[in-house]
Structures are given as C-alpha cells and as structure tokens.
Design a protein that fits this description.
- The protein has helices spanning about 10-15, 20-35, 45-70, 75-95, 100-120, 125-145, 150, 170-195, 195-205, 210-215, 220-245, 255-270, 275-300, 305, 310-325, 330-340; strands at about 155-160, 165, 165-170, 245-250.
- It has about 350 residues and is mainly alpha-helical.
- The chain has a domain at about 40-255.
- The strands form 2 sheets. A two-stranded antiparallel ribbon has the order 1-4. Strands 2-3 form a two-stranded antiparallel ribbon.
- Strand 2 (about 165) and strand 3 (about 165-170) form a beta hairpin.
- The chain starts with 11 loop residues before the first helix and ends in a 5-residue tail after the last helix.
Length: about 350
C-alpha cells in the first residue's frame, strides 16, 4: 500500500502493519465511533438494514477467501450458511445450549461440511466445480427437509434470542451491536488470513495452480483449507441470521442468495477485503433504493415490471461492472487513494 510523501517504513513491522499513519488511525476510530453510536440517531428500520448488511458482509468475506483469493468458485454459499444456522438453532432450541456455545459449533459444522463438498475441487475446476457446489446446496437443503424431527423440516424451527448475563438481545440496537462487533472481528480476521503463508498460497493457486504445485504448494491441503475457512464464515453468518429472525427455515437460504453473494464480489472486487464490504453494502443499499422507488414506478410503468425491479437492477449493475469495472469498487478505491497521495503528480 502506498504511503504519503515523506513517510517511510523503518522496520519490517511497520511495513507489514495494516494502518501505518496517524491519519489512518484517526479515520478508523472516527468510523468506529460513528458506527457504534448509530443506534442513538438511526431508526429501527435503518438499524435492521445495517444489521443485515453486517451479516451479509461476514458471509461475503468467506466467499472472498474461497473464490476471490483461492479461485475456487462456489455457488453453494447459502447452503453452507444453512448448515451453520440449523446447527446453532438445533443446539439452542432442542438441547438448551447457550448461543455463545452454539456459535463456534455452527462455524465448525459449516466448515466440516465445506471440507466434504470441497473434495471435488481436488479433481475438477471451473464450470465443473461450480456444478459441484450447486449440487452441495440442494443436497444440504434436502437433508434439512428430511430430518424434520430435528430441524422442523418445511415447518421451520423456532430459535431463541441470544443472551448476555441474563439480558436477552431483543431490541434492534442490542442485536446491531452484536452483529457489528462480530463483523468487525471477521473483517480483521479475513484481512490477516490473506497476509499469512496460507493466504499467499491461495493467491498462487488462483493465479496458476500448476505453477503453485511446482513451487511446492500442496494444492490438496490449501484448497480444502480455503473451503473450510470460507464455510466457517458462512456458518457464523447463518447463525447470526436465524437468531436475529428467531426462526430457522430453508426459505431464508434460497439458491439465488449464493448467486447474489458472488455478484457482490464482482461489484466490490474479488481478492479484496475492502471490496467484499463495498459489494455487500452497495447491493443491499440498492435493494433498499428499489424498495423506495418501486411503488413510484409502478404508477408509471407496468406494475409487473416494477415488482421485478430489484432483480433487474441487481443484474444490470453486475453486468455494468463486468464490462466497465471488472476489478470492482475495491480497485477504484485504491486508484482514488493513489491519486490523492501522488497529487499533483498523479497520472
């Protein structure tokens, strides 16, 4: 990452630091202060939107590690979220576990299922791997529906709200704080995972798996590790979602969600932690904009077209980014920062 003029790294620790200037620290603390004081001046509707954005961001971080960094395209991410959701829901509703004990179990269960369905990645890639992950989604949903005595089947499962020292997180603000704390931790973890030896191996596999294998990288181990880590993030997101709604149902994890998560990576920028955030925020805010504009357009255009406006706008935005900005908003943000640092000598 570039530094302002006159700022130099004097040690390896400084060179590896994520935040290296005083301005970056000030901006971070200002953003966190704004984020965690937002319940004071935002309505419950806005807090609901922000909470869903936070949950989505966690899920997209996992898909970014798997697809953006390791190059293993997955269209079964919503299914892995369902594994985490139902694991946490069953442990809390059926066994009486605490949410804090069920959450890591949900993450681990989703990661283990990801390992199982990640095995085809050792032999296939590209379109064939996409088909394998699509099959994973429907297999997971089939199992959830069949084990109705445990999961509730098509009727769903009532899930209790999380508790902290006897205080139940019922209000929008209290659950907002929970989700944002976990989302911030997930962002920090995702950023640091890609800076490790495993993260560099993921990038090497994504760029050229044959060259990576010649260099001594164990493709078998690192591809499965990418599936495990990506699905762990998905499991955490799924658990947070069902405990927020207080109900688990297969309808909350449709196949199209996996497609939109991949679309968020395209819009935000694959292989970028900031891009995962940009993609999740931009498409979720687009949905809210369509919700506001849709009723107005229904009086002008065909009502059926206005009802499908959300799908139309999402697809149109993804196509526009694929054509005109294939590296996403994350890359554009890096160009803006470089322009600011190099001005007036930027080019």
């Amino acid at each position: 990452m570039g530094l302002p003029c006159g700022t130099f790294n004097q040690s390896y620790a400084q060179d590896m630091a994520i935040l290296r200037t005083r301005a970056q620290w000030v901006i971070l603390f200002a953003f966190l202060a704004f984020l965690f004081t937002s319940p004071l001046y935002f309505s419950d509707r806005v807090l609901t939107i922000l909470t869903i954005i936070g949950i989505t961001t966690i899920a997209v971080h996992g898909l970014n590690i798997l697809t953006g960094y390791c190059g293993q395209i997955s269209l079964g991410h919503a299914g892995f979220m369902a594994v985490g959701a139902y694991t946490s829901g069953v442990f809390c509703a059926k066994l009486g576990w605490s949410f804090w004990a069920a959450l890591p179990c949900a993450a681990l269960a989703a990661g283990m299922v990801g390992l199982i369905f990640g095995l085809p990645s050792l032999r296939v890639k590209g379109f064939y791997l996409i088909m394998a992950t699509i099959a994973a989604h429907f297999i997971i949903m089939w199992f959830i529906l069949q084990f109705r005595d445990v999961t509730g089947g098509a009727d769903g499962l009532a899930v209790p709200r999380p508790e902290i020292f006897g205080f139940v997180l019922k209000s929008k603000a209290s659950y907002f704080y929970l989700v944002m704390i976990i989302a911030c931790l997930a962002t920090f973890l995702a950023k640091n995972i890609v800076r490790t030896r495993a993260g560099r191996a993921f990038v090497a596999i994504r760029d050229n798996d044959l060259a990576a294998e010649v260099m001594g990288i164990n493709l078998w181990a690192y591809k499965l590790l990418a599936f495990f880590i990506g699905c762990v993030f998905a499991g955490v997101a799924g658990s947070l979602l069902v405990h927020y709604i207080a109900f688990a149902s297969v309808d909350q994890f449709p196949f199209m969600n996996s497609v939109w998560y991949l679309g968020m990576l395209i819009v935000g920028g694959m292989g970028s932690t900031a891009g995962a955030i940009f993609g999740a925020v931009s498409l979720k805010l687009l949905d809210e904009l369509v919700t506001i504009v849709g009723p107005i357009l229904s009086a002008v255009v065909v009502p059926q077209a206005a009802a499908s406006l959300s799908l139309i706008m999402r697809g149109l935005v993804i196509i526009i980014f694929l054509i005109f900005e294939p590296r996403g908003l994350g890359h554009r943000w890096e160009l803006i920062k470089a322009y600011y640092r190099l001005w007036p000598f930027s080019h």
